[in-house]
Amino acid sequence: MNTNTIAVLTSGGDAPGMNAAIRAVVRTALADGIRVLGVRRGYNGLLNGDVIDMNLRSVSDIIHHGGTMLYTARSPEFSTPAGVKKAANMCRNLNIDGVVVIGGDGSFRGARDLTAEGILCVGVPGTIDNDIACTDYTIGYDTAMNTAMEMVDRLRDTTESHDRCSVVEVMGRRCGDLALNTGIAVGATSILVPEIPFDFERDVVERMRFTQRTGKKHFVIVVAEGVGGVSEISEKIQQETGIESRATILGHVQRGGSPTMRDRVLGSLMGNHAATLLKNGIGNRVVAMKQNKIVDFDITDALNQKRVFDVERYHIAHKISI
What we know:
Blueprint: E1 5-10, H1 18-31, E2 35-39, H2 42-48, E3 51-54, H3 81-93, E4 98-103, H4 105-116, E5 120-125, H5 141-161, E6 165-170, H6 177-186, E7 190-192, H7 200-213, E8 219-224, H8 230-241, E9 245-249, H9 261-279, E10 285-290, E11 293-298, H10 299-304, H11 311-320
Helix pairs in contact: 1-9, 2-3, 5-6, 7-8
């Protein structure tokens, strides 16, 4: 099949580096003589025909900005079979031959459903949680880690000044990667993640008491969002140890900010690969990074892959932070 027009959209939660991926999709396709439409506000925009023609200047000076220039939104309507058919018909009405979908696993399920309706789709993993099993890194993850690290470093200045314990919640509902690597980077006394059950007395209180005996007077506990309960954990720590404790939820500040070099490069390479697949008439794929190389997988295979938490790294983190 000849690919004459492709579309690009961002879906789900925004992630730093999405703009780099959009830029690469647009410029790769235009270089190959393919028209590019930007779909605003994700699948919701596709359903409503909210599209703009993209040219070289449409994506100038966006690579260093966080968020997504195409905006993003949830779309309950698209999650229904009727919604998918409506979106496919809109693609045909707009002469769209293929769609690059930048987002997480929910976005990829939508891309798979749209492909089944005859519209070629390629997924590009953009999510700060790094919870896409088929890829070593997702766009936005590196920036979010660096943001969380910087915020905890700032928090630790006051924690150390007052001999306190700071219990810090970072993002990651189902995936503890962000918490684990942030915890390592800031030297957290304890790291709590959803993948590994924890015993409060053993994994938090006893570790704090041990380090107290070796002369440490301030503490940082990093907790993944999926574990939650940071206020309760903080109160319990203060009750059991007598150490003044404060809870801090970093929240959506982790989504924002200028993307790191790694996320800009990753987004650029993945966007280029996605556009090239569609140019060659290949869809129903997810772009990924494996062992520092850009590859792609069948969407269904990608969605069926099980993410493996790095338990060895988790144990190393606690060994070196005692």
